[in-house]
Recover the amino acids of this structure.
């Protein structure tokens, strides 16, 4: 009996020791991951912090060596000066209404295409979807010249339609994301709607759309960020300063030989505010939409 109790006590001691060492190893691993994530976060946020700090300096402080991190003195006048130097209010209005139209149009067209590819059986559906999805693999540089020629033929050069229509009609990623979500909706709901006499339009509007709100929110946010930050397309299609968007207007601070970096940094900081607001208040929708899409698809 004494031997058995000694063996039991020894086994319990070994189990406790292994549990303690495992907990210690797990704790070290968790701290290591947190430190790694913190270092990556600081690396990612550094350019943004540098932009904000540079927006509060004069031009002599920006390029001083060694770098002067804290502005001294703080030049708050860079912000009103940047707004007065360029037609920022008009550019903001252009960016807002272009982005709003692109987002709304994309949600409408992509959700309809997603419903068709996921729920409607027609000849060549899967092949057509693969071909449509393969457009994501084509570099944008390949399609720039053909799209420019198309815009020229229809008379949309130097108009905002050249930025709205292509962005609203050709978003393969949005269609893919929404299709994966729609495929996870039980077919029983559609069959019940059909029994009640609903057609495809009624099913799409009354059954599908209410159930894919998280995915629609994620797609809308991604589309907003892409349209608001777009620089290359406005640079190619727009020539009139009154029609410039915010990213394109910021480029106007660069001259042929010089650039007013202080005012550019102030304008850049102002232009980032809508993006930050959308991201801060919509983090939950982004994560929920992508997570639920992955699970349901």
């Amino acid at each position: 009996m004494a031997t058995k109790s000694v063996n039991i006590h020894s086994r319990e001691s070994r189990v406790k020791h292994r549990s303690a060492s495992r907990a210690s190893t797990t704790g070290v691993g968790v701290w290591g991951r947190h430190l790694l994530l913190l270092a990556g976060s600081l690396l990612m946020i550094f350019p943004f912090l540098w932009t904000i700090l540079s927006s509060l300096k004069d031009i002599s402080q920006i390029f001083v060596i060694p770098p002067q991190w804290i502005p001294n003195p703080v030049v708050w006048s860079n912000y009103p000066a940047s707004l007065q130097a360029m037609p920022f209010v008009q550019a903001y209005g252009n960016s807002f209404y272009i982005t709003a139209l692109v987002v709304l149009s994309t949600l409408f067209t992509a959700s309809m295409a997603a419903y068709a590819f996921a729920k409607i059986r027609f000849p060549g559906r899967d092949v057509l979807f693969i071909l449509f999805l393969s457009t994501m693999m084509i570099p944008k540089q390949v399609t720039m010249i053909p799209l420019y020629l198309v815009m020229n033929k229809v008379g949309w050069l130097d108009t905002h339609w050249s930025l709205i229509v292509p962005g609203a009609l050709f978003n393969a990623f949005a269609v893919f994301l929404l299709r994966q979500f729609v495929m996870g909706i039980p077919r029983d709901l559609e069959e019940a709607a059909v029994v009640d006499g609903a057609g495809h339009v009624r099913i799409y509007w009354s059954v599908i759309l209410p159930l894919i709100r998280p995915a629609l929110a994620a797609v809308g946010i991604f589309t907003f960020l892409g349209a608001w930050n777009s620089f290359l397309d406005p640079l190619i299609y727009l020539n009139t300063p009154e029609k410039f968007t915010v990213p394109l207007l910021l480029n106007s601070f660069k001259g042929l030989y010089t650039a007013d970096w202080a005012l550019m940094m102030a304008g850049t900081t102002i232009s980032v505010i809508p993006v930050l607001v959308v991201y801060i208040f919509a983090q939950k929708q982004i994560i929920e939409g992508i997570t639920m899409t992955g699970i349901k698809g």
In short: The chain has two domains: 2-43, 85-296. Residues 124 and 130 are 10 Å apart (CA to CA). The mean pLDDT is 82. The two ends are 60 Å apart (CA to CA).
